[in-house]
Amino acid sequence: MANLDTGLFPTWCGGCGDWGIWAALKAALKQLNLATHQFVLVYDIGCSGNMTNHLRAYGFHGLHGRAIPAACGIKLANHSQKVIVIGGDGGLLGEGMTHFISAARANMDITVILHNNQVYGLTTGQSSPTSMKGTKGKATPLGVVEQPLEPCGFALLSGATYVARAFAGNIPDTTKIFVDALTHRGFALVEVLQPCVTYNKLNTYDWFRQRVKPLPISLGNVYEAITKAAWTDQDIFTGVFRRDETLSAYHQTFAILKDKTLIQYQEKRDLTKYITSQK
Amino acid sequence: MPEVFGIKIAGPAGAGSMSAGETLVRAFTRAGYYCQGYPEYPSLIKGGHTSYLVTISEKPFPNNAPKVDLLLALTQGALDNEHQSIAETTHIIADQTLKADHEHKNLHQPTLLTVAKNAGNPLTLNTAMLGFVAPQLKLDPNLVWELIRQELGDKSQTLLDQNKAAFDQAGQLSIQYHLNLDLPKAINQTHHLAINGSQAIGLGAIAAGINFYAGYPMTPSSPLLHFMAAHQLEFDYLVRQAEDEISAINMINGAAFAGAKAMTGTSGGGFALMEEGISLSGMLETPIVIYLAQRPAPATGLPTWTSQSDLLFAINAGHGEFPKIVLAPADPDECYRLTHRAFYLAQTFHCPVVILSDKYLAENYYSSADFPALDPVPLSAVSPPPKPEMFARYAFTPNGLHSRTIPGIPGGEYIANSDEHEAHGLVDESAENRTLANQRRRDKTNEIKNYIPLPAITGNSDQAVISWGSPKYIARQVAEEMKMAHLHFNHLWPLPEKLDTLLSGYTKLISIENNETHQLARLLRQETGITIHQQLGEDTGRPLDPGKLIDQIKHY
Lengths: 279, 556
Description:
The structure holds two protein chains of two kinds. By secondary structure, chain A is an alpha/beta fold. In chain A, 29% of the residues lie in helices and 18% in strands. Chain A contains nine helices and ten strands. In chain A, helix 6 (171-182) links the parallel strand 7 and strand 8. In chain A, helix 3 (89-95) crosses helix 4 and helix 5 runs antiparallel to helix 8 (222-229). Chain B has an eight-stranded mixed β-sheet with strand order 6-5-4-1-3-2-14-7. Chain B has a seven-stranded mixed β-sheet with strand order 9-8-10-11-13-12-19, sandwiched between helices. A five-stranded mixed β-sheet of chain B has the order 16-18-17-20-21, with helices on one face. The longest helix of chain B has 19 residues, at 431-449. Chain B is globular and about 85 Å long. At the A-B interface, strand 1, strand 2, helix 2, helix 4 and helix 9 of A face strand 7, helix 7, helix 9, helix 10 and helix 11 of B.
């Protein structure tokens, strides 16, 4: 595995969960022994997306909330590439919610690493779709009225064939889950609990350490998985809630992608038959 | 003998006036006429009033016939609604049970509904109408039946039998009638295709080597989505119906980054949603093609009607300042060639290219000359020698152009970064880098201008009519009747160099556009300082009326 260093050093706050995710992702890519031209990192906009400048590989830093459709386009154009989405709860579950559901339903063969810090960090501390009820953000000074969205349960209901949760404070376990997710064929979500040390004073490392526990059993069906994936005041399980490769990934359902990638089709097309039919 | 002859078939949605109209266009094109088929329909599935006007002519690209010479009314509603389109001399064919509100000397009332019912299916009335009218129009009934048969496709044998019975029985009935219609000369030896703008744009994309099309349904862009979807297996590309237009544009940005020749299509509302993604293409320099089929707006507007009100919207789409190309074909041949060219320009300049059409062009059928076979547009990608640093995808070059790599190429790693970036795509917010990046984008726009032709000129006069997009032949008819030159633009942005010199050579310029605020006239003034003397056009959802335009010029 070639060097992943771009020469630029990250600008995250000291102690941010993003450091742990960055370290785990680099370790996972090294373990998988992928060359830097064999995968594409697709970044959303936010603190997570600022990882863009710190991995020397093919990268696509798109629009806020829109990393998933860009990743789908990349995967369909060249499915020999591993496609990894780096995004946050704000982008992927706020503006990007429709894309998240759609890609999960389609079982697009991409790995979505969702940095869940329950806050908009880069825009300096507004509440997010996963903020806990009552959280006071800069734009919600009276407290969040909404229920928090649960990314894992939501992904499971949307048909995601791989759903896992990791904790940025535990780099070895996060690495293991990343390796597992990256080898899954189909839509994979890894929710990473990512404490924001600057804007989220509630869901801190200590807060998580009191609740995070490895998932005790392997799970049977999706609805059992949804139940176990739910946060309770006592337990937030980490581990793999679903891993199902019995369904084809989206690109595998197309005969033309069996032996070639889409971009390998460069032949001249003969329109004669169709044009003749219009005479 | 008239130069054009208009046939209108009308009825509620679902009664088959659209398919019957298209069948007539195909039949007349085969019989040696130049035709245009023009559908009108409201935004609903059953009921309402729909009509299909077939204009046949001895000259290429006829505009809609100024009056209907033959009205084929499928129902009482059709007869009542078309009151305004008929003249004293119009021949009307309507079932015996229908009632005209006053005397018509050329009203013919065969028992077509009885024929349809006897055939076992009252819905075969449109087929019965064609069976009746074919001999009166001197069309070979075997040819017309063959075209109906094609239109019915894989329908059940029962339905085919019912239609055939209706067609034949109506033909028998027709023998007793002698309408003696005064038709133009059938002298078309060149325009053998009967095709609409959407099909031609699809064929242009296929010829260019499209790999990926993503879209979300919206009239009048959906016919292209359907065409692309229907032919993906035959021509080895992929179509994805996206969850929304935002997804579609971001998907094609991703696909284009990864090397796909990628395209999306939409109408005004969807294009509005795509704007941020167009701006993204401007920053990442992805080669993408966006088809914008215009309809009257604002908001939902008139969903199934035509308009040219998105020219300036397309040119200015996306926040920020970046190179973009806007093309506007006027007929199937231009649709085919300019769509192929859009892919070529996208691969050459790595920028978004917008193809503007409208409902008129997207859904009208035209008799067209054969399309030439075209080579696929080569994929622009290089394999650089590996270096310790990433590939300098965005290096500064004298003309703003540079080579790119795609994922999978070792040594080509770079970041396509929506943040302002340096040569390798790494974020760089310095004023120095920003200045350089701005200059690169400006240089590229200037370079593109070298590829943009001046407008096509027909006629020789010191006065000229100017137009863009689908009203080309309406403007040309006006120019010819007024003995003026005609300047037609199909490259709208950037505008070519030396355009000011060309325009200032005319003593009078008259713009004709299917919009309310004369957008091309405003654009030309903005870019050349030249004022268009008379600015004509309106945005009623209907195509412009050459007769009215000529009156406006005469009474200026």
